[in-house]
Amino acid sequence: MKSLKLYGARDIRFEEAEKPQILDGKDVIVKIKACGICGSDISRYKKLGAVTPGQVWGHEFAGVVEQVGDQVTDLKVGDHVAGCPALIEEDDYYYRAGQPARANSLHAIGAKEPGGFAEYIKLPEKNLIKLPDDLDFDSASMIEPSTVVLHGYYRTNLSVGNDVVIVGAGGTIGLFAVQWAKIFGAKKVIAVDIDDEKLQIAQDLGADYTINSLKENVLVKVADYTDGMNADIVVEAAGTPTTASTVFGYAKKGGGVVFLGIPYADVAMERFYFEKILRSELTVWGSWSCVSAPFPGKEWATTVHFMHNNRLNTKKMITHRIPLEEGSEMFERLMERKELIGKVIMYPES
């Protein structure tokens, strides 16, 4: 079958891979219809390379059930599904305690086991979410990043009427954060990014104000937009050392910061920002993965519901649709940053 395999930093290859086979009664084989490039994929491609060199990569996908094991009860051939990429050993203490996102054994497909940049994938039945047949595969392949955001918001005390600042609002996670903040009932959503074109998309998706941090003083603008109070909730979605060390400055006294981005580097903080945590008595929430109990969690059912009812807009987020064989070239284009590239959807079928 066709696939994209990651061998090392900036080394991804379009190659043939062995088609998966049913080995366990709970196994399900899915024919992949659409798969997406994640922001974490871009960082790993650029900086870290493969967990397992030569592994089929990718973890965002949707497709159609092609074959099921003899112990599968809730899925049948022809069902439309999205994949939860979190693989966890069921005897893991945190999994058994109903805290799967904290499981020591948690890892994602595309690391040690084959991922979603391929024509087919095999997963346990519990990792597949049945979809309405009329939910398009492009949107369905983006359910996973939405669940990452929703998992993070569930960690916070976000409520109706709050003001929310989203740093790194132009990426997939940031754009979902904008939309979910509005669904949660946020009064003002302030989008922060370094790209005006992406900020325009954030505004189109519901952001009330936008700030280009390369051109404007974010501390001043956030205070202006919130009548000097700053935000109830700040979302760090950029995943850079700079943004991770400065987001505390945008939260109001008694507010909180939730971290969704992964810096992939050491984070150093000026005293001014660190003291914001103390002097403003901030709450800091770490958020990891996209799952809760009962596995895979309400993040998934909730996303499917709001996506199916057109409350989550994925169309404005997608800028490129390409065949899988052009994936290697696309990753290099993402490195060059010479053009606006938002969400990229790839299609294994020609």
TrEMBL record:
Cofactor: Zn(2+)
Matching Gene3D superfamilies: Medium-chain alcohol dehydrogenases, catalytic domain (3.90.180.10), NAD(P)-binding Rossmann-like Domain (3.40.50.720)
SUPFAM superfamilies referenced in this protein's UniProt entry, alphabetically: GroES-like, NAD(P)-binding Rossmann-fold domains
Annotated GO MF terms: oxidoreductase activity; zinc ion binding
Domain of life: Bacteria
Coiled-coil zones: none
Residue ranges occupied by any Enoyl reductase (ER) domain in the UniProt entry: 8-346
InterPro entries given in the database record: ADH-like_C, ADH-like_N, ADH_Zn_CS, ER, GroES-like_sf, NAD(P)-bd_dom_sf, Zn_alcohol_dh
Pfam families: ADH_N, ADH_zinc_N
Keyword set, alphabetical order: Metal-binding, Oxidoreductase, Zinc
Protein family membership: Belongs to the zinc-containing alcohol dehydrogenase family.
Name the record gives this protein: Iditol 2-dehydrogenase
Organism encoding this protein: Paenibacillus terrae
